[in-house]
Amino acid sequence: MVARVRSVLVGRVQALGPTVSGIAKRPVSGPRRVEALGLAGDAQADLRVHGGPDKAVLCYAWSHYGPWRDVFPDQPLLEAPGAFGENLSIDGLDEHAVCIGDRWRIGSALFSVTQGRQPCFKLNLRFGVPDMAARVQASGRAGWYLRVLEPGWIEAGDACELIDRPHPTHSVASVLALIRDRETRPDRLEPVLALPLPASWRRLFEQRLQTGQAEDWRRRLEGA
């Protein structure tokens, strides 16, 4: 099966409960320009933790929607792509099939895989489920981010072509599992630090090695 873009989605910053967010994405028709900081017409609210070159484009596997519908059969957000704030809904790929440092050609643009998504409390507000972010993290169905190496155009139906895989033993799923499982053992973390990680993930793993402890997730997952 050839992996393809099911939907291209963008959104603007708008109210979300007591805060604001760009998580509500809507599909666009026809080609959409992608530049260094993401898709034309897309926006993020909190630029400290969203957006930027390392998080220019968020991908989410359409295959994940089935398991989520099993848990939340009456949730209308799960009827179409965009529930999780993704920019690209992807058929034929998930976190197990994508590795850190991969280079993918999608449409006329070239991307590299930078990191998995660490879900935040805004998913709780979007779904009306107090522990939705924690559920997403525990499931491993979190999504992954792309850096734009070559700007171009992208649209629904475009194939996802793997150009290079320099780190085949480090899938996004495996690295996300280290975070989720609060891994602190040097023999598990030191190989990850050899990857081309974004600064935030490098700090996370370095701090675990230095302290022997995992970071506190409450603020990210609960907004506390």
Automatic annotation (TrEMBL):
Domain MOSC: 26-163
A Pfam family of this chain: MOSC
InterPro entries on file: Benzoxazolinone_Detox_Enz, MoCF_Sase_C, Pyrv_Knase-like_insert_dom_sf, Tri_helical_YiiM-like
Domain of life: Bacteria
Single annotated GO MF: pyridoxal phosphate binding
Name of protein: MOSC domain-containing protein YiiM
Highest classification ranks of the organism: Bacteria, Pseudomonadati, Pseudomonadota, Betaproteobacteria, Burkholderiales
